[in-house]
Every structure is written in structure tokens, then in C-alpha cells.
What we know:
Layout: H1 3-9, H2 15-18, E1 33-36, H3 54-68, E2 77-81, H4 84-93, H5 98-107, E3 110-113, E4 116-120, H6 121-124, H7 129-148, H8 158-175, H9 181-196, H10 210-220, H11 222-240, H12 242-251, H13 258-266, H14 270-285
Parallel strand pairs: 2-4
Antiparallel strand pairs: 1-2, 3-4
Amino acid sequence: MTTTARAAMLLLMSAAATSAATAACGASTSGPLVLSIPDVRAPSIRAGAWIDTYEVAVVSIASIIERDLRLPAIQASLYFYDDQNAFRQALEADGYEPAFARDAAATLSGIAGFRRVILNDANLRELEWPNRVALLAHELTHTAQYEFSRGRRSTSEQWLREGFAEWVEVYVMDVLGFTTWYQARAIAVQRVRDAQRKQPLPTFPEMVTYPDWVRTVLRSGEEAVYAQALIAADLLIARHGRDAVIGYFRLFAASEDRLANFRTAFGEDLAAFETIFRDHLARMMR
């Protein structure tokens, strides 16, 4: 399943939300549509049903991320490419190996980096606005993670990078009235429960790096793996607070010791937290 499909089905949207208009910004024949968030002049709104342009979407998302969650100011530029081929070429131009760019373009709708998000607008145009907002919120959170570590990818746990991006995505969608936390958690639990019936859930050591993450998604299924990451991040935040997770990512600006950084940020070893998480998950599955 593609990342677009995952974002499109992550949350059960309300009837009012899914009635939002589906008009997209006009496609450019000379290059991608580029939105630099600091330069966008559009109103920030907190009623998702009124979002019907990318400009309003990104400004509204950035406002929630910055003001509500106290994450770094979003400085990213978003590049909306017209189709899969243009998306692939953009990834290659950005330094990705051709084989990776080809595979990524066939399966992903967006890739975030330091102050930059590259998007396949052909995929986004197939989605209702609530689903586009979900995907954009997720990717913009990844740009904030780069800000924490001073522009570097760092060795932070990929499952936590993705889980926190999912957590922020749900937070944004809740504020905008597209879903509720109760609903989002219930869906995540159901997806993990369904996956667990077929095969054992992946462990944290299987999801440390981005290549690890991709292999795990291909083996275990995108919906279940992202849902598991969301539940894990949600548990960490419930136990230690959102600021502890932010502090974890900030530690990578000075050190790439992922296990020591986890211990410093949360006051417990990663292995110990995984045991706690497994017990927590087992209780949720009952």
C-alpha cells in the first residue's frame, strides 16, 4: 500500500470534513508548484472544513505545530510535482540514487528533508482535503525533526521519527475537527490487532534506520507498522511528556549515540521501554 493510501485511510473522517472541496492548485507546465511557508500569505484557520487550497493548508498546519505544540518554526518549501515521473526526476536531482528514486516514486507521495518536502501532486489530487492535510502535517513534522538536529538526518530511531510524525498528524487533525484522539487510537489499535493475527509485530531493533523501516513496512504492512509507531510514540508522550520527545530529537544535534540519547531523554533504556510497550499493547489488544 502506498504512503498516499496510508494517509488517506489513517483516520476516519467526519462526514462534514470529507465534504470539503477537492480543488487543487493549478498544475504548472514549466516546473513544480513551490510554496515556501515563511512567504505564504494566507489565513491560518482552525476549522478544517474551510481548507481548500495548499496555501491555507500549510499555513494552518504550521500554526498548530508552532503555537500549540511549540515545535520549531516551519521553514520548509514544498515542491508539488505534476506526476510520478517528474517526482522521480526531482528525487534524483536532490541526490537520491536512481534505483531508490524510482522505487520511492512508485510507492511514496512525499519525502521530507531539511527545510524541503518533495511531493507527487498527482497522488495528492486524488485525495479529499482532510487526507491531504494529514499527509502534509506528517511530512512537515519530519522537517521539524531536521531542525532539532541542526539540519542533519541523525541516527534517531526511525520508528520514533515516524511515530511522532503520526502523533503530530493526529493532533493537527483533531484541532481542525477532522477526527478525535479516541477515534484515531481506536483505529490504530484495530490495525495492529488485525496484523498481529497474521504475524508477530516488528520489534524496535527492526525499525532503527530508514532502510530498516522500509523493509519492515514491506514485510508487515504499512497500516499496521505506522499504527504501531503511533501507539509507541503516544505511550512515550503519556509517560514522559511531549517535551521529552522533543528533547530526544534535540540531543542528536550533539551526539549520534542513539541508545544514550534515548536514556538521557526518557530516563529509561530503550529495551526496558520496549518491554513496557509490549505489555501496554497487549492490554490494548484485549
